[in-house]
Fold:
Amino acid sequence: MKNKMLEEFKLTVTNVVENKDGSAVLILNLSDEFKKSFMASQNLKRWSSKRFKDFIIVGLKKSIHELEKLKEIRKSLKEESQDVGEIVKSGTPNISLDEGI
Structure:
């Protein structure tokens, strides 16, 4: 049953055309059930290409922002891991606990 639902609410990217200016055109294939579901979620009586385009653009921007945050986190973790590795290689650090007391 679950696979049938996934098939009915299908949205697939069939092609991506990259432009010289860095932008891209996505060619999407939408099932009729997906369109019906989208129209219901947006309180639409008929299909709106503009509303769908705006919806996709907002979703893509959010996804790109989240991916950039994840990249930053991974980079930070990698740098911290390297710092810890350097401390371990150099031996036990000399730490004095009574300095500020």
Remarks:
- The beta strands are 11-18, 24-30.
- The mean pLDDT is 79.
- The first strand starts at residue 11 and ends at 18.
